[in-house]
Design goal:
- The chain is 81% helix and 0% strand.
- It is built from 14 helices and no strands.
Length: 400
């Protein structure tokens, strides 16, 4: 069993961030990608939607499979698949082929997120809450920083540069897993992953009212955030005239609020508990989304009018993401992979639905993004408060 060390935590933070790195580096390059493949404007949004779809669905399988086979072999296989798919993206001859490769990239990347969270539960055990928050900070830091680097890389060398950068990160983290990580699942379940057992395990997991509340809140919160993540490139670059590098700087500044929210969670989660932190976080998300709608309706689209209210959303989102995952995973030590996979699926399900709706409703303005953003935020608030009624406080974490 690995010991809870800083190098291990740094590796897990990078694994948690890999999916977002793959997306955020690419977002500033979407316009160049469409031009390079002679595609219609907006067609590249499918590359975001298919990634989050496979990224989410894959976690339903990768998590339970790691409960059965161990974290290490599933993680290595997933990272190898990620590298092969990213290489295919670089060699794609048209946008459809690029999107297909991107789907396989999402399938490979999902193993990094779900297994990083499971390893945290394996190693840190009952004290996993702050460590989970720190791994989420790794993911959120990538959301803040990767668009800046993606914009600069795209501006200098075209859309292939950010894809190559994601491949380099994937290769480095695979080397770290190969040389510095030993198996942490000390009690593999030989029946985990079998269809009948899988259905029963998920049914048992969802009997917990709190798990349902955390999963629904996470899904809708990330859906609200993804509306802006996916639509911001069009809003800032095409409608407001920012360059790819300027967009990366503005967007990175906005989502730095995610890190502030996650740092608050990391320091306070053991004292306040996941439920209280999620309640406060989802209130901030809803308030920020409502303010975005009001400002947009009264004054139209502007850099400050869109950016400033989003800081509330990102701070709240930085609280909801780690606290909801901790609230679902920590009490389920005997099936940490499955619980982690389900929460990851819930997160990506919200993003997938938001991306599909945003793609369908595109009209050349920023209104679809703003309206969907507000709708998902209100659903997150309603889901948490309706499903949390009658739920008891999080039980003491089960021991292994």
């Amino acid at each position: 069993m690995p010991k809870p060390t800083k190098p291990l935590l740094l590796m897990l933070m990078t694994l948690t961030a890999l999916g977002e790195i793959s997306t955020q580096l690419l977002i500033p390059a979407l316009g160049d990608l469409e031009q390079g493949f002679s595609a219609v404007p907006g067609a590249s949004l499918a590359a975001l939607s298919v990634f989050v779809a496979t990224f989410g669905l894959g976690q339903l399988v990768m998590g339970p499979l790691s409960d059965r086979l161990g974290r290490r072999p599933v993680l290595i296989a997933g990272l190898l698949g990620y590298l092969l798919a990213t290489d295919w993206m670089l060699l794609a001859g048209n946008l459809s082929e690029f999107i297909a490769a991107r789907a396989f990239q999402g399938l490979g990347a999902c193993s990094a997120l779900v297994l990083a969270r499971a390893v945290v539960r394996d190693v840190w055990q009952a004290q996993a809450g702050p460590a989970l928050a720190l791994t989420v900070i790794g993911m959120l830091s990538s959301i803040a920083l990767a668009p800046m680097f993606g914009g600069l890389l795209t501006q200098q060398w075209g859309w292939q540069a950010p894809v190559l950068a994601a491949m380099v990160v994937g290769g480095l983290v695979l080397l770290a897993v190969l040389f510095f990580y030993t198996e942490s699942n000390s009690h593999p379940d030989p029946r985990a992953g079998r269809l009948s057992k899988l259905v029963g395990d998920y049914r048992d997991l969802l009997r917990g009212r709190q798990v349902r509340a955390f999963a629904a809140t996470l899904s809708c919160t990330y859906g609200a955030m993804f509306c802006v993540i996916a639509g911001s490139s069009t809003a800032y670059i095409k409608l407001l005239g920012l360059s790819a590098a300027e967009y990366g700087l503005v967007f990175g500044t906005i989502v730095s609020g995610l890190i502030a929210g996650a740092l608050f969670t990391q320091k306070k989660i053991l004292r306040l508990g996941p439920q209280r932190i999620v309640a406060f976080g989802v209130a901030l998300v809803t308030g920020g989304a409502a303010l975005t709608l009001v400002v947009h309706g009264l004054f139209g689209l502007s850099v400050l009018g869109l950016s400033l209210p989003q800081v509330l959303v990102t701070v709240g989102g930085g609280m909801v993401l780690p606290a909801s995952v901790a609230g679902a995973v920590i009490p389920n030590a005997h099936r940490a992979g499955l619980a982690s996979g389900f929460m990851g699926f819930s997160q990506m399900a919200g993003a997938t639905l938001a991306g599909v709706l945003l793609g369908c409703l595109q009209d050349g303005t920023s209104w679809p993004m703003v309206l969907l953003h507000g709708l998902f935020a209100m659903m997150a608030f309603a889901a948490f408060h309706l499903l949390s009624r009658g739920a008891s406080a999080m039980p003491a974490p089960a021991s292994r």
